[in-house]
Amino acid sequence: MIRLYNRPFLVLLLALCITLPSLAQAPAEQPKALLWEISGKGLKQPSYLLGTIHAICPENFNLTDKVKSRLEKSERLSLEVDMDAPNFMVELQQAALLPKGSTLRGFFSEKDYALLANHFKKTMEIDLQQLDRMKPFMLHSMLLSQLTECQAVSYEQSLMELAQKQGKEVIGLETVSEQLSAIDQMPAEVQTSMLTHMVGNMEEARQNYRNMVQLYLQQDLAGLDKLSREDYNSEEYQVYEQAFLVGRNKRWIPVMEREAHIQPTFFAVGAGHLTGKDGLLELLRSKGYTVLPVQ
């Protein structure tokens, strides 16, 4: 079982958010594929959609030839946000801070704060008071290496570097502020619960991450969906799903349509955004596009 606190790592440089598929029922006999071709509905040339995992150990990273060739055929690369934008880091830093008058400590019970403070001090030699202006969800990013047990690499970063070498424009489906506003829609108690549960159950979190990576390497989106479904009745997960997956997917569709009609575009987003009735694959199909796996 992959619990809520293992799923969403805030997309800091889009390498810190590990989203799994929507818990809505996926279409039957979902093909094992991460790369999809989008065609039809007036598109002169196809665009492509790749489901990524935002943080993976180097030994498991593989940018396949078919991914590289489809990126080569495309005119632009679209990530969740434009990581190459001049104001990317400034927006990120601003959105990561709590409003004036709020403190990190104020979000936690004395017991939970002590748990976090001890963990950060023991594992990273960081005094939690130094992070008192940070939003609770942002602390997940600092724990990433403890979850992956490696210096993780990012498909998004690698794709961006390859696109730049090819002289392609890099764009985003949303701004950093729009992305982080999805987190702000989640009640503070949900964010704090996710964090304290993860810190209190780190070994289970690591094993769940390993299971997720194996399914990803098998290109098994349906398997990832099944792995997630045990948490479906969790009220906290449903809040997360609506804010961070479903809502964003629906906002992205008109952007994807517009960009694909302007130029053939290679879209790369977390694999969790692809499946289910509110996933990008079905939403695109419902708009009249043909969406097929690239074999």
From TrEMBL:
Q: Does the keyword DNA-binding apply?
A: no
Keywords (alphabetical) are: Signal
Signal peptide stretch:
1-24
One Pfam family, short name: TraB_PrgY_gumN
> PANTHER family annotated for this entry?
CYTOPLASMIC PROTEIN, CYTOPLASMIC PROTEIN-RELATED
Protein name in UniProt: TraB/GumN family protein
